[in-house]
Structures are given as structure tokens and as C-alpha cells.
Amino acid sequence: xxxxxxxxxxxLLAALLAATPAAADSTSVSIxxxxxxxxxxxxxIWLPPGYASPDxxxxxxxxxxxSLVLTDRxxxxxxxxxxLVLVDNRGEFDYWTGRQSPEWIHALAMNHPPRLVxxxxxxxxxAARKNLERTLLHELTHAYLHRLVSPSTRRNLxxxxxxxxxxxxxxxxxxxxxxxVLYARWLGQLQPLGALTTIRHKTARSSELAYGQSALAxxxxxxxxxxxxxxxxxxxxxxxxxxxSVFEQSLGVPWPQFADRYQVWMxxxxxxxxxxxxxNIIFMLLPLLLVAAYLVTRARGKRRKAEWEQMDKSADKxxxxxxxxxxxx
Length: 329
Description:
By secondary structure, this protein is of the alpha/beta class. The chain has helices at 53-74, 90-97, 126-148, 159-169, 175-186, 204-236, 243-251, 255-268, 272-276, 281-319, and strands at 31-38, 41-47, 82-87, 107-110, 115-119. The chain has two domains: 1-148, Zincin-like (2-Layer Sandwich), CATH 3.30.2010; 156-279, no CATH class. The chain is 53% helix and 9% strand. The protein has a five-stranded mixed β-sheet with strand order 1-2-3-5-4. α1 crosses α3 (126-148). The longest helix has 39 residues, at 281-319. The chain starts with 30 loop residues before the first strand and ends in a 10-residue tail after the last helix.
């Protein structure tokens, strides 16, 4: 990210990560790593102890660049200062989020106070940085949507819209999420959009299914109306009117009609290639393949036995055309 414009680089970075307490509570060991300006607002950065100055520079550059990615695609939004906190253990994660989260939740975008908290193991390797950037872009999308509407009308944005845009902006559904949606479709467990207005984090699988269906709903909006349609919808939502009425006025499609189309579209999606690409598919198909191989081998054996019996009968007729038993003494 070194090629980004100068104004996207950190405007203030603490020298050598001077150890500053995260708050009056001494239970946090996070280090204030400085601040950087982004198109979403000034961002204060907190890192785990032991991270070097280059790590802080990378994180500052990443949050600046990824914020710009958001506004380039979705349009500008109001600026508001926020915090980005990277932690390396569950205790710090719960401290900064102010709650005890399920073990499978590793990132959270908070609105009050405006704060992004990410649980990371390391950011030194290219793979770790790629994963961090994907997660960070997801949470920045939530921060973007928090700024889109006023606090009094924020609840007008349904959960599926929030999560769907966040998943799509951060690279789309990963294979595991796609397969979860596929299997739910096969089992008849897909949820209507109305059931995804508020997404409750119950289990990792139910959450993954809800996120996947949400991402596909946003994908359908883009498929029908393009990126321009999505940007128009986001811009029109700034007025604070209820989501369903804004949806119809902005895209020219009654909300119930879109919800019905979504259900039909989900059922008709062709995911056979996706299912066959599942690395676990061999373990599901192996018993069927073994049974099929046994049945084919058995049928082939019976056919050969019948052929041999027919050959024996033909040979007997040639050796004894009259059908009279001949005894040689």
C-alpha cells in the first residue's frame, strides 16, 4: 500500500509505539500506535504490545486505503472519528467490546463508541495481512453504514442489508459460506429475507448461513440494478425514510416483489460445480461409489457366468449332436 497518495498515509504516528494505557482500567495492555486520517474520519490505532513501528505504519496505511476503496464504490459519507483496535487474545477483545462474545466471533464494529475491534494472531506474513485486510474491510463497511443515516433512523437498515454489503465489499462469500448456503438449500432450510431483518449471533453455522443469504440478497440487487443502483439506494437512504419504501422509490421495484424474487432466485441457483469442488465431497460420495462399484462388479460377474454356461451348452451340443450319452470303457 506504499503507492497510495500522500494524504492517505498516517498523519500522526506515535514514536516507537510508546506504551500508553488503553483506558483507566489497567487490565488492558494495548498500545496506542498513533492516528491516521481516512475518508471515514480520523482513526486512532491501538495494537498489542510487541508490535513494531512498521506494523503500525502498515495498519495505518491499510485502514486509510481500504476506507477509500469503500467510498470509491459506494459513494462518500460523513466523517466521524473512530478507533481501530487490534488485539491478540480473547480477554482484550472482550475488554474493548465491553461484552463476552462467542468464541467464533473475531471482529466487531461498534457504533457507541465508534470502534472496530479485531482479534488477530499476527500481521507479519502476507497471508496474515491478506486475512486482516479482508476482515478490516468488512468491519469498515459497517462503520460506513453507521455514518450513512442518522442515529434516529439507523434501525431502518435491516440486518441482511448491513451484513450483505459487508460480505460483498470484503471479497464476497468464501467457499465455506457458499457451501453452507448450498446445503441449507438442499435441506429446505433457507430463510426468507423478512427473517433476516435482525441477525442474531446464535451459532457459527446459523450466523454463516444468515451472512451468506444476506450477501446473495445484495448480489441480486447488483445483478438487477448494477453498482449504480446500489449506490443510488444507499444515497436515498440518507433521508431516513423506512427501508422498504426507499427501496421501492429508489429501484422502482415493490419490496414484496423483490422478496419473492429472491426466494425463487435462491432456489434456482445452479451450485452443482460448487458442491463438486467441496474437498469433503469425496468422503460423502465414497460410500455411494463403493456400493455402485460392488453392484457393477456383481452384475458383470453374473453376465460372465451366464456366458460361460451358454458356451458349455454349445460345446456339449457339438460333441454330442444326437443328445445320446456315450460311454467309453
